[in-house]
Design brief:
By secondary structure, this protein is an alpha/beta fold. It has helices at 11-16, 57-70, 85-98, 109-114, 134-142, 155-164, 188-197, 220-223, 252-261, 263-266, 273-288, 291-310, 329-341, 371-387, 406-413, and strands at 29-31, 34-37, 40-44, 102-106, 125-129, 146-150, 171-176, 200-205, 232-236, 246-250, 321-327, 344-345, 347-349, 359-364. The strands form three sheets. Strands 4-10-9-8-7-5-6 form a seven-stranded mixed beta sheet, with helices on both faces.
């Protein structure tokens, strides 16, 4: 008789999770751009704390004070007993920050995206970028709407699909703002124009760009100076906010509808007080310390130029998320190990998470990385890449001047 437990992870995972340090589920103690791995100090380049706020004393103090006052958990969902005035304060602050009428705070960013499901009803059509985060994919799958995926950032493909759709159906275009693996931006101006022309709502997952992009950290819409382009945002506190938690922000009537229909918000315990307080403290810093954004983009430009000069393919990244394309899973696993041996902890994405033969190592940079950390990262990739024959043995030493500002790179990356 078949056993429902007789399932195994893919052979790739079994190889990667063998003995010794590994890219998946490896315990590391990380803080401020460094980590300790089995007692050895390494540069931490696998953490999405882009602004370096997770270890900020003000954020940590806010979390401790909230625990002292409210305890460790609300032990109830937002709907029933699990809403503190602190949750309402954070919602009001985020709505104002994002220029929206209202916001709903959820326990994770994943749950914020899942909370979109009630919007995707029978007869509706959802157009979704094929590189969208898994939680957006799941939110759409869980709904009744007709799903129309379009090739990553391919606006002609999207337009074709929109034009072929029933003009009377209610429609949404759903996209990540800053894509989490490739580190490239959605094409907001074109998306907004298509949404307007085909009367679709534009939903943007700002998990990686809220806090990071735009002069005030308000994300892709501010970056492109299109404050009214996005109809509904989702976001997370696990990247720029140095905490954990999620948010949906948009028109008051939509947020009100989701408060009472979104299963991921209704049937799950609310965000713990410490995480709410940490997110509020982080929001203050996001607003008052724009230099953190400047710093992480300076470091990113150095890494982009350095890696490209060495001969690595980093795709269209213009951000602190830097994919280094390697190829096969095995080769990528070896490169990951070699880079670690050089003292840098990175993330690895192999098939089936990415298409076969397109495995990559992802670097995530933080404002709290020092210039020395960046030199260390570039030296590690140079040494490891040369050992494996991935880059020329004598790559040029002097890196070209980084572009003067990110807009040049954005233009280049908006292929
Ligand atoms: N959206 C995107 C684009 C993400 O990258 C992530 C997390 N990696 C999420 C949503 C989920 O966020 P959280 O970690 O808060 O669940």
């Amino acid at each position: 008789m078949a056993d429902i437990f007789a399932k195994q992870v893919s052979p790739v995972i079994r190889v990667i999770t063998g003995a010794g340090p590994r890219p998946l589920y490896q315990a590391v103690e990380a803080r401020d751009g460094e980590a300790s791995l089995d007692g050895v100090r390494v540069v931490m380049a696998a953490c999405n704390d882009y602004l370096g706020l997770a270890g900020d004393p003000r954020v940590a103090a806010a979390a401790s004070q909230a625990i002292a006052r409210y305890g460790a958990s609300c032990s109830g969902s937002r709907l029933i007993g699990g809403t503190l005035p602190l949750h309402e304060e954070l919602e009001a602050r985020l709505a104002t920050f994002l220029g929206c009428e209202a916001a709903l705070v959820t326990t994770t960013g994943f749950q914020a995206n899942l909370a979109l499901t009630p919007l995707f009803g029978r007869g509706d059509i959802v157009f979704s970028d094929m590189s969208n985060h898994a939680s957006l994919v799941d939110a759409i799958r869980a709904g009744w709407a007709d799903r129309r995926p379009y090739r990553h950032s391919d606006m002609e493909h999207l337009e074709h699909k929109l034009a072929a759709a029933d003009p009377d159906a209610a429609k949404a275009i759903v996209t990540d703002g800053l894509f989490s693996v490739e580190g490239d931006l959605c094409r907001l101006p074109e998306l907004a124009e298509l949404a307007r022309r085909f009367e679709a709502r534009l939903v943007v997952d700002g998990a990686h760009d809220i806090g990071l992009l735009g002069a005030g950290g308000r994300g892709v819409a501010e970056h492109f100076s299109l404050p009214n382009a996005v109809d509904l945002y989702t976001g997370t506190f696990s990247k720029c906010f140095g905490s954990v938690g999620g948010v949906i922000a948009g028109p008051a009537a939509v947020i009100q509808f989701l408060r009472y229909t979104a299963r991921s918000a209704i049937f799950s315990a609310s965000l713990p007080p410490a995480s709410v307080a940490a997110a509020i403290a982080a929001l203050d810093i996001i607003v008052s310390e724009p230099e953190r954004r400047t710093r992480v983009f300076e470091l990113s430009r150095r890494v982009h130029c350095g890696l490209r000069t060495l001969g690595f393919d980093i795709g269209g990244s213009f951000s602190p998320i830097v994919p280094v394309h390697i190829g096969g899973n095995d080769l990528c696993g070896r490169m990951w190990q070699e880079v670690l041996q050089e003292g840098v902890f990175t993330s690895m994405f192999g098939a089936p998470a990415v298409p076969e033969g397109q495995a990559l190592i992802r670097l995530s940079l933080q404002a709290t990385h020092t210039d020395e950390h960046i030199t260390h990262i570039l030296d590690a990739f140079a040494a490891a890449g040369r050992r494996l024959g991935l880059i020329p043995a004598a790559a040029p030493l002097a890196s070209p001047r980084p572009p003067a500002d990110t807009d040049e790179v954005v233009a280049a990356s908006a292929r």
